[in-house]
Amino acid sequence: MMKAMLIDDEPESLQFISSLIGMFCPTVSIMGMYTDPFEGMAAIDLQKPDVLLLDIEMPGMTGFELLRRLAVVDFELIFVTAHNQYALNAIKLSALDYLLKPVDPTELENALQKAEERQKEKRTVQRLDVLVGLLSKTNELQPSQQHKIALPTSDGLIYVEMSSIIRIEADGGYCKFFLQNSTPLIISKNIGLYEGSLETYDFMRVNRSDIINQHYVVEFVRHDGGYLKMKDGSRVPVSSTKRDELLRRLARL
Q1: CA distances from 100 to 6, 52, 181 (A)
Q2: How many whole angstroms separate alpha carbon 19 and alpha carbon 175?
Q3: Chain centroid to CA 204: how far?
Q4: Residue 221: pLDDT above 90?
Q5: What is the four-CA torsion angle of 225, 228, 229, 234, rounded to 10 degrees?
Q6: Which pTM value belongs to this model?
Q7: Going by CATH, does the domain composed of 148-252 fall within 2.40.50.1020?
Q8: Dihedral angle, C-alpha 241, 243, 249, 252, nearest 10 °
Q9: CA separation for the pair 93, 148 (Å, rounded)
Q10: How is domain 2-135 classified at the CATH fold level?
């Protein structure tokens, strides 16, 4: 059995998730539920859960602050939240899991199944480090490193500094990351996953197939339909519907 702990300041939410786990997740046992994040933090150290379902927005201490205060994070994480889009983008880019309220039974079951599979990887701490770096642009957490992104490959996950990403190119259901001083990485995710998540970090989708890092743009050329010259020598077409927005963004850098 996988041992789960739930921390959420809303008692109704705890009871609802608990009942869903009882109905749909027979291999999961709940070892504790806490509405007070301080009590939950103490219980984590004592009870050593396999997986923590953690609310993000709580009075007194956010879920991110709770994680920062823990001496050891050796359990799987599933965030539970009703909002905070910036935080969700950071969670996605960290390859951590999350559930939106009201929690859907199928999504909860899938998330817990993935948590069981991920226990074998022992990479939660690395993913949390990535999350901390991404959230450092807010006042939620103090920065611990340069911003990184967790990219799923056929062999697992690779952690890449966001500042090294020149552009991303769609390749069917996959996408290709072009990096500074490195060979391109083929990633087993659709480019659409990264469009909204990366916008906060000065990336922009400039056509149906390309997302560019604005800091690697050398020149915008108006003829031939309009295209960008990038620092790696590549040329990236710019959709007419994206041109004005792109130029405004580049002017603000």
Answers
A1: 15, 15, 38
A2: 39
A3: 17
A4: yes
A5: -90
A6: 0.71
A7: yes
A8: -140
A9: 8
A10: Rossmann fold (3.40.50)
